[in-house]
Design goal:
single chain, six-stranded mixed beta sheet, Glutaredoxin, 2 domains, alpha/beta, two-stranded antiparallel sheet
C-alpha cells in the first residue's frame, strides 16, 4: 500500500468513526469541508433564543408587516398569547409542501390556546400572496414582510421557518420542518408551557 492510499484509508476511517459511532445518540454530521456538527437527540429540539448574557430574548411585536388577509390586523394584536408564526414564500416548493401540515397544526393547537399566523417574505408581491391565499384556501392571518423588518430580526436565510412564541414573548425557531417530528415538537413545546 502506498503512503497516499494509507493516508486515504486513515481519513476515511476517521470520518466513518465520527459519522457512525457505536452510540447512535452521539452521531455527528460531517459537512463537505469535513467539520463535524453535533446531532444528539437533545440538539433536535430548538432552545429559547438568548442574548449574549444568556437572558431569553423577547419577540418584538411592534414590527409592522403589512396585513394582507385583514387590513386592520396588526402584529401587536397577537402579543400576550401563545403564537406560532409560519414564515414562507409563495414561490417556495418546500413552503407549499409544509403548508398543509401548518394548517393541520393550527387546528390541533387551537384547543391549546395557540394562535397560528403567517408572514410572507419581502420578494412576494401582494398579488402573488392573495393568489396563494385563494389557491390554498388559506384562512390563517397573513402578513407581508414588505420592508424586511421581520426577516432582519428573525430570518435565518432559510424558509420555511416556524417561530414559537410564549405569552411572555420568549421564542424559539424551528429552522427545519420534518412533518411528524416538528409538529410533535411544537405540540410538546406548547403543552409544556401551559
Amino acid at each position: 500500500m502506498t503512503q497516499k492510499s494509507t493516508l486515504l484509508v486513515i481519513i476515511l476511517f476517521c470520518l466513518a468513526s465520527s459519522v457512525f459511532p457505536k452510540n447512535k445518540n452521539e452521531r455527528k454530521n460531517v459537512s463537505i469541508d469535513g467539520s463535524a456538527t453535533s446531532n444528539t437527540l437533545q440538539d433536535s429540539m430548538p432552545s429559547f433564543e438568548t442574548d449574549k448574557n444568556g437572558i431569553r430574548k423577547l419577540f418584538n411585536f411592534s414590527l409592522k408587516p403589512k396585513p394582507i388577509s385583514d387590513p386592520v390586523l396588526l402584529l401587536s394584536h397577537f402579543a400576550n398569547r401563545n403564537l406560532l408564526i409560519f414564515y414562507f414564500s409563495v414561490k417556495c416548493i418546500h413552503c407549499q409542501r409544509v403548508l398543509p401540515h401548518v394548517k393541520k397544526l393550527a387546528v390541533e393547537l387551537e384547543s391549546s390556546d395557540v394562535t397560528v399566523i403567517t408572514i410572507a417574505v419581502k420578494n412576494n408581491t401582494e398579488a402573488d400572496i392573495r393568489s396563494f391565499i385563494r389557491e390554498y384556501s388559506f384562512t390563517l392571518p397573513v402578513f407581508h414582510d414588505f420592508n424586511k423588518s421581520f426577516s432582519s430580526l428573525y430570518g435565518t436565510g432559510e424558509i420555511p421557518l416556524l417561530i414559537a412564541i410564549t405569552k411572555e414573548g420568549e421564542f424559539l425557531r424551528f429552522k427545519h420542518f420534518k412533518s411528524g417530528k416538528t409538529s410533535g415538537q411544537i405540540k410538546t413545546f406548547f403543552g409544556s408551557i401551559q
